[in-house]
Specification:
The protein has 119 residues and is mainly α. It has seven helices and no strands. Helix 1 packs across helix 3 and helix 3 crosses helix 6.
Amino acid sequence: MIVSSARASNAGYSGLEVLFHEASHTLFGQRAEGRLWTELQAAARADGAPLPPELDHALLFYTTGGAVRARLAETGSDYVPYAYSQGLFERAWPAYRPALERAWQPYVDGRAPMGDAVR
């Protein structure tokens, strides 16, 4: 993957987040077959519904953006994650934002186990 720092959306800390996001595809993507993907598939089967399209990508943007924001907050930076600053939730995944903020954020914050957040 090539990421251009000449793009305004990839400038500054957003570029860091984009690189982290791209590297994290190995952990979050459907082909990663790790614990997260296994738990997502199991939860979908238990509900009798397929996983929503693009859920893995929305989840990846949300998680990597939250991690970068949290680390930068430790240095006093008020970073706005890429998905928010670039309007990705509004344009691509409007239904996912409330669910991620309600159910996934407690896991990202370390307040809930992954399995609870996935369900």
